[in-house]
Protein: MFS transporter
Organism: Streptomyces tendae
Amino acid sequence: MHSTDTSQAPAPQAAAGDSRRWFALAIVMTAAFMDLVDVTIVNIAVPSIQRDEGATFSQIQWITAGYALAFAAGLVTGGRLGDIHGRKRIFLLGIGGFTLASALCGFAVNPEMLVASRILQGAMAALMVPQVLSIVHATFPAHERGKVFGLFGAIVGLGAVSGPLLGALLTEWNLFGLEWRPIFLINLPVGVAALVLGSRFITESKAPRALKLDLAGVALVTLALLMLLYPLTRGRELGWPVWGYVSMAGALVVFAALVAYERAKGARDGSPLIELSLFRVKSFAAGIAVQTVFGVGLGVFFLVWTLYMQVGLGWSALRAGLTGVPFSVAVSAAAGMSVQLLVPRFGRKVLQAGALVMAAGVLIYLLEAERYGLGITSWQMVLPLVVMGAGMGLIVAPLTDAVLSEVPREHAGSASGLINTVQQMGHALGLGLVSVVFFGVIDDRLTDRAAPAEVGRAFVDGFTHALGWVAGVLVAIFLLMYALPKRPAQHVEGAGAEGTPVTGEARETKAELVS
């Protein structure tokens, strides 16, 4: 998830017999797990936060979108800071900041403080997470990295299943009368332990030829996204004022300025934030579009799904968390089959089948939600969730390798970082679009005098409307995938002589997608 080509990392500094490297691995894997769980754990607690804090729906969107936006905007810069100033140093700075931000979230006195703390948490995660694979690469010899990335895949699967359940349990238990706050406070002891142990066991490393920072590029990307997202999330509450449309149109101008600036910077010093030459590779350009659109679809679905179950149907956080388990299990199972058995044999068709299978699951869910209304049960959701999870698993695990397969090896690191960045940006955009595709449908029916049954029916209608959008997004992804290579080049799976850990990048992208 970082921007530099880790194949240029120095030789492993820990001797093959040095057991310290396994402690270092446990510490960085714990940090990656914290980040993954933190995203999924918050979704399940959103209705409790909204109820207890009196947060508006736009604030609820920013609690999730703010994290995704800050994370996306800082990922590439976080990776470069590690390469320049030392990966251990930036990792410890990131995990310390992430722990502090978690404390601020847990002790937030109002929704505004919670949103600001979540944005800080996302920015700190952008410093912490990109160092994980760089530290692994600099610490482990090439012949051990396959085993390490296998462990990372297991952590991804565990995080996907345990995040929603842990969030549900902590919310339901109401520890010490703290309501939803333990979902953030649980990071404190873990973060402090990782900080203390990391300073002792992680070996410092830097890239021999690190690229320069492109802070102006980061500023332009962040500004463009804010100009697009802020009017989307606030526009509905404010009656869609003219300035909102002007801001969204202006975002396109800022994006154009970003492209011009990046082209000039690349010609000047060869270290742009975005390597524009990558977009001349058809499969990469199409893959970036797929990742972005997929992020939009997931951003819409997961927030709306949580609100539908807990606010619309009136279910507890624990019931909602348990209902999602079949989905997580199906994602993990299908992801393993996809990489090991199906893609080597059928290539691109597996990813396209995944998009169609996931769309079929969404449509089954839509039909069941309309048919059973407020009387729907968790068991009736199992079929669509398993179908959706299977489709998603077929896509997320091999997608990054397919996108990178025709990218020149010297740009593999930059391309990997960019893939993950746009996926996070798509996720933030999807969360912003919830205002249009969900709240826009239920707005008129959410009056103070509305009976619980009326509110429930409004949320069911909003949910089915949003599912229609998600199904359309998946069909668009299916079509975009025709531009991917029929059979991804095998060298991307991991294995050049240098041991370039691109497979690890793929798994990190999978982690973010699952979340």
